[in-house]
Design brief:
Distance between the termini: 36 Å
Number of strands: 2
Strand order of the largest sheet: 1-2
C-alpha cells in the first residue's frame, strides 16, 4: 500500500483529516494573536506606569522582537522535538508571560517589569508556538500551501476581534494587570490542549494531486538556509516583507490612540474598531495566501505595497471626525499585515521548497521583529517630537513606494542555486 492510502488523521482519510489541523492551528493562533489587542491596553498601561508614548509601546515592541527571535529557535527544535512538544513548551511560556504580567508589576510597578513579563516571556512563548501549526499546514498542504497557511494564520490576525472585546470591559472594571492574568490562564489551557493534535505527515506522503512528476519537481526545489541567504531573492523578500510588516505593526500599535486622540472617538468605540480591524487582518491571510498561489508572490507583494502607500497617504489627511477615512486606511494597513504573514511563508516555500520551509521562513521572519522595533520607534518619535503621527505615515508611504520597486526587481525564483 502507498503512503497516500495508509496515512490517516483523526480516524479519516488524511486528505480530509488534514483540515482539522488547520482548525486547530486557527484556534491556537486566536490565543497567540492577542498581542494585536495591545493597543486596547496601551493607554491604561501608560497611565498606570506614568510613561511616555514611546515607553508604553515597549512591551509590544519587545514582545514582537522576541517572537521573531524565538521563532528561529523553535523552527530548529521542530526537527528534533516535533510540533506537538514545541507547541506545549511554547504554550506554557505564553500563559506564564501573561499571568506574570498581572502579578509581578504589582510588586515592582515599572513599565520595565511589563517589558520583561509580557515582552520577553510572553513573546518568547509565541515565537516557539507560532511555527508549529504553520509548519504542520505547510507539510500537509503542498498542493494548497497559500490557502492552508492563510487559513491557519487567520486566527492570529482575527484574534483582536475576540480578545480586544473581551479585554476592554475587564480593563475598565478591574484594570490592565488583572486582565493580563485572566487571559493568561485561558491561553495556557487552550494552547496546550490543541498542541497535542499537531503532527507532521509521513515523509513520503503527498496528496493525490501531487503524485508522480509534480512531487519530484517539488523535491528538486528544496534549498538549504545557508544557500538561500546568498540569493538576491531572499534579500528582496526579506526587505519587502519588513516594509509590509512595519506599516501594519505600526498601525496595530497605534490604532486605539489614533482613534481617541486624532479622530476624537470615545475609548469604547476605539476598542471596537480594533476588533473590526482585526477581521481585516484575519481576512488578509487567506486572501493574500490565495493570491500568492494564483498571481505569484511578486505581483501579490506589489499589490500590497500599493495598498499601504494609498492608506498612508490617506492618513495624512486625517483630522477630528474623519471616521470613514481612518476606518478605510487602518483596515487596509491591518489587511496588508495579515497578507504579509501569508505571503512570507508561502513565498518562502514557493522559492526555496517545502522541506526546509520552517527553517527558511524563520530567517525571513527576522524582518517581522525588525519591523516591530522600527514601527514603534517611528510612531512614538513622531508623536513625542511633533505631537502627531503625520511624519510616521510619510515614512511608511515612502517605504511602500520603495518596496514596490524591490518586489518587481528581486521577488522572482532564484537562479543557479
Amino acid at each position: 500500500m502507498t503512503a497516500l492510502q495508509t496515512e490517516r488523521l483523526f480516524g479519516m482519510e488524511a486528505e480530509k483529516g488534514r483540515w482539522i489541523l488547520v482548525i486547530a492551528g486557527f484556534l491556537i493562533n486566536i490565543c497567540l494573536g492577542s498581542v494585536y489587542a495591545y493597543s486596547v491596553f496601551r493607554d491604561s498601561v501608560q497611565t498606570l506606569f506614568q510613561s511616555t508614548s514611546t515607553e508604553s509601546g515597549l512591551p509590544f515592541t519587545v514582545f514582537i522582537a522576541f517572537f521573531a527571535i524565538l521563532m528561529f529557535f523553535g523552527s530548529k527544535l521542530m526537527g528534533t522535538l516535533g510540533p506537538k512538544k514545541v507547541g506545549i513548551i511554547g504554550g506554557v511560556l505564553v500563559g506564564a508571560g501573561w499571568i506574570l504580567s498581572g502579578i509581578l508589576p504589582q510588586a515592582i510597578p515599572s513599565i520595565w517589569t511589563l517589558v520583561f513579563t509580557y515582552g520577553i516571556i510572553g513573546g518568547s512563548g509565541v515565537g516557539l508556538v507560532y511555527g508549529a501549526p504553520l509548519a504542520v499546514a505547510t507539510r500537509w498542504f503542498p498542493d494548497k500551501k497559500g490557502l492552508a497557511v492563510g487559513l491557519t494564520l487567520a486566527g492570529f490576525g482575527g484574534s483582536p476581534f475576540v480578545t480586544a472585546n473581551l479585554a476592554r470591559p475587564l480593563i475598565e472594571s478591574n484594570g490592565p494587570l488583572y486582565t493580563f492574568m485572566v487571559m493568561g490562564f485561558a491561553f495556557i489551557v487552550i494552547v496546550i490542549a490543541l498542541a497535542f493534535m499537531l503532527r507532521f505527515p509521513l515523509v513520503e506522503w503527498k496528496p493525490a494531486s501531487m503524485q508522480g512528476a509534480t512531487a519530484k519537481a517539488v523535491a528538486r526545489a528544496d534549498i538549504e538556509p545557508n544557500r538561500m541567504v546568498k540569493t538576491s531573492t531572499f534579500w528582496g523578500l526579506f526587505l519587502v516583507y519588513t516594509i509590509g510588516c512595519l506599516a501594519g505593526l505600526m498601525a496595530i500599535g497605534i490604532s486605539s490612540p489614533v482613534g481617541t486622540h486624532v479622530i476624537r472617538m470615545d475609548t469604547a468605540t476605539a476598542a471596537a474598531m480594533v476588533g473590526v480591524f482585526a477581521l481585516f487582518n484575519g481576512a488578509g491571510r487567506p486572501l493574500f495566501g490565495w493570491l500568492t498561489d494564483r498571481i505569484t508572490p511578486r505581483w501579490t507583494a506589489m499589490l500590497s505595497m500599493l495598498i499601504i502607500l494609498g492608506a498612508s497617504l490617506l492618513m495624512l489627511r486625517a483630522t477630528e471626525g474623519t471616521l470613514v477615512l481612518y476606518s478605510v486606511a487602518f483596515a487596509a494597513l491591518w489587511l496588508c499585515l495579515g497578507g504579509w504573514l501569508a505571503i512570507g511563508p508561502t513565498a518562502t516555500t514557493t522559492f526555496f521548497g517545502a522541506r526546509n520551509a520552517a527553517r527558511n521562513y524563520s530567517f525571513v521572519f527576522f524582518g517581522y521583529g525588525l519591523a516591530a522595533i522600527l514601527g514603534n520607534f517611528i510612531a512614538g518619535s513622531s508623536l513625542d517630537l511633533f505631537g502627531n503621527y503625520d511624519t510616521a505615515f510619510m515614512i511608511t508611504a515612502g517605504l511602500a513606494a520603495l518596496g514596490a520597486v524591490l518586489a518587481i526587481v528581486f521577488m522572482k525564483p532564484p537562479k543557479n542555486v
